[in-house]
Structures are given as C-alpha cells and as structure tokens.
C-alpha cells in the first residue's frame, strides 16, 4: 500500500467545514493567529502564558478564525513548548474559536502519542481542534537529539510517520499490520483535521499528493512562498478531506498608531530572531534595546531583510498589505503572527488588525 493509499484509506470526515470555513463580516478572507506565548525581557513564562490566554479570548471576540500555537524547544522567548497542553488550557477559556498546532513537530514524537493527545483534545473540545504537523525539530541539533532519543534520527521517514499517525487517528490499520490491534484512546466519532506545515517544497508536495490543507511559513521563508504554493497546487490530488487545494500562509504583522511606532515594535522581534540565528536565543528584547543595539553591517542587513518580509504600519496600512499579499499568493487564508515585546502592545496590534481587516465583533465560526 502506498503512502497516499494509507493516508486516504480511512473513513470520510463527517464535516470538512473545519478546514473550509469563513468568518462573518467584511473580511476578504479568513484571518487567523499564530501565537508563540512570547516571553519578553522583564516578563516570566507564567505571565506570557496568561497573556496568550487573554489573547485567545479576545481573538474569539474579534472574529479571528483560528488560533494556533507552535512547538519550539530551548528558546527563552517562547513558552509554547508543548502545544497539546496549552491547547487544552485555551480550549477551557474559549467556546467557539478553532484551536490548533502550528505545529507539532512529528519527528519529535511517537505517532501514537500525538494521536492520543489530539484525540483527547478533540474529546474535550469537539469540532474545534486542528492538528498541524511539521517535520523540522523546532530547535537546535543537540536538543533535537535529546527529544528524539529512541525515535528516528531525523525526518527522513516523515511520510511513513504521517501514515502511521493517520491510521491511529482513524483506527483503520490494515489487517496484518503490527499495530492493527492497537487503539489510540480516546477515539470518538470525529478527529482533528490534519494540516501539513512547511517552509520548502517537501511538505507542499506531500500535502498536495495526499489532498491535505497546507500552511506555509511565509514569515520566515518568503522567498519560497510562491514556488511552494505552486508545487502544492500542481501536486494536488482530491481526497476524502478536500476536493481542491486549501492553503494558508503565516505572515509577520505589526500594527500601531502609525508606521514609525509599528516599526519600532517590530525591531524587537527582528533582533530576537538575529540572536536565534546566531545560536544565542534570548527573551525578546525591548524596543529600546533593539534601537540601541550596535548592529554590524551583516546584522543590519539581516534585520532589514527580516522586517522587509513583515507587514508593518498603521492599521489601515497593515490591512492593505495583508490583502495585497493574499491577492499576490492566491491563498485561502492568512495567519498573522506578532512575536514582539510587550503583552499590551501585542494584544493591541492584533485588535487593530482585526478591526481594520473587517472582522466582526463576535465569535468566529468554524
């Protein structure tokens, strides 16, 4: 049995609106949030998680469609190391907002473990959970080895891991398979839709071949956005999940009263990413630190390029920039992320974007 046949041999999902939904209001397309439970200088992880909880509640009121959290390890500026735990908490503090992983790094975990975690999440919050999967470690090589002890060394067998996870979720291993008698518990009538995440062509092509929705990390791999989306669409084969491609992209976005204020906030995340790329991750620096940092020419070029991939400005400018990006890429959905310093500034940025983009005041619909 091929990987595609294994993936698509399960029962047809009862409701695909979990993927192909739309928000009410004047927004030209669904708008969602990717959150990293940002830990800035001067804040604790507990404060960051409380801010994420508040943001999820507000996102539901503002009309955002999804709220995803990402798995990262060994990064002092990110508190979302275990998406399943955080999603259970967020689900208890919201009522209608779709919640998901953006994503869980599949090679870091046994597929049965993920099937049990997200089966439990689906049982707790039925019809509201998305399972986004990535193949990168979400960390440095040493931490990846510590996470993957006893698991495959790397992501070379990602398609096989994905097929195994899907069979555990659907409870449909073929007869004779070593795991045919195993059951991922709990297992209910429905299960979370699987998304593939990526920043290159590998996951784009795999998502297309399997007929799955695809999320591309435009916010840190913008040069690959159009080629990956083209590959996804050209590779797409209709499945029990989707009859045509469905793609979203993650977009770094910061809104403030004016462009100068927004750019000042955005420099904090750019300096934070510079430190990550240099192997020295720290809590997200303050705007003051980012302004006074003595950038070398190479560092200044990195920061300029990073901020050039973001949508930054007044609320209207950000809304216009997001819509222009949506039209240029042809995606079905945008997922904004703002990894800036300061919980109030981040919260306000998302609120300004929601209003300017035309989301309704009220809960998002699946």
UniProtKB/TrEMBL annotation:
The keyword Secreted is assigned to this record: no
Superkingdom per UniProt: Bacteria
Annotated keywords: Oxidoreductase
Occurrences of domain Luciferase-like (ranges): 32-332
EC number per UniProt: 1.-.-.-
GO MF terms held by the record: oxidoreductase activity
A Pfam family: Bac_luciferase
Family: To bacterial alkanal monooxygenase alpha and beta chains.
Protein name: LLM class flavin-dependent oxidoreductase
Source species taxonomy: Bacteria, Bacillati, Actinomycetota, Actinomycetes, Kitasatosporales
């Amino acid at each position: 049995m091929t990987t595609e046949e294994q993936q698509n041999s399960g029962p047809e999902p009862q409701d695909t609106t979990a993927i192909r939904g739309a928000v009410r209001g004047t927004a030209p397309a669904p708008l969602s949030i990717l959150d990293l439970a940002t830990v800035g200088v001067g804040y604790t992880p507990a404060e960051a998680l409380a801010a994420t909880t508040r943001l999820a509640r507000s996102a539901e009121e503002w009309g955002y469609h999804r709220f995803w959290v990402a798995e990262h390890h060994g990064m002092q500026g990110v508190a979302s190391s275990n998406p399943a735990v955080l999603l259970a908490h967020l689900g208890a503090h919201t009522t209608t907002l779709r919640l998901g992983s953006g994503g869980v790094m599949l090679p870091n975990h046994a597929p049965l473990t993920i099937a049990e975690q997200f089966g439990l999440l689906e049982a707790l919050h039925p019809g509201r959970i998305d399972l986004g999967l990535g193949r990168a470690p979400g960390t440095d090589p040493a931490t990846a080895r510590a996470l993957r002890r006893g698991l495959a060394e790397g992501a070379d067998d990602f398609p096989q891991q994905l097929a195994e996870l899907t069979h555990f979720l659907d409870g449909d291993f073929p007869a004779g398979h070593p795991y045919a008698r195993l059951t991922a518990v709990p297992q209910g009538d429905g299960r979370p839709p699987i998304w593939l995440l990526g920043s290159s062509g590998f996951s784009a092509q795999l998502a297309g071949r399997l007929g799955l929705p695809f999320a591309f990390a435009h916010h840190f791999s913008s040069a690959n956005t159009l080629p990956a989306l083209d590959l996804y669409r050209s590779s797409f084969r209709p499945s029990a999940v989707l009859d045509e491609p469905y793609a979203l992209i993650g977009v770094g976005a910061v809104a403030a009263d004016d462009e100068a204020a927004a750019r000042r906030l955005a420099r904090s995340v750019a300096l934070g990413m510079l430190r990550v790329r240099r192997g020295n991750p720290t809590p997200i620096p303050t705007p003051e630190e980012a302004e006074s940092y003595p950038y070398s020419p190479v560092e200044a070029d990195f920061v300029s390029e990073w901020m050039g991939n973001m949508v930054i400005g007044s609320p209207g400018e950000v809304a216009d920039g997001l819509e222009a990006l949506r039209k240029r890429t042809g995606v079905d959905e945008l997922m904004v992320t703002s990894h800036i310093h300061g919980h109030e500034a981040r919260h306000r940025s998302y609120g300004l974007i929601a209003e300017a983009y035309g989301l309704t005041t009220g809960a998002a619909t699946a």
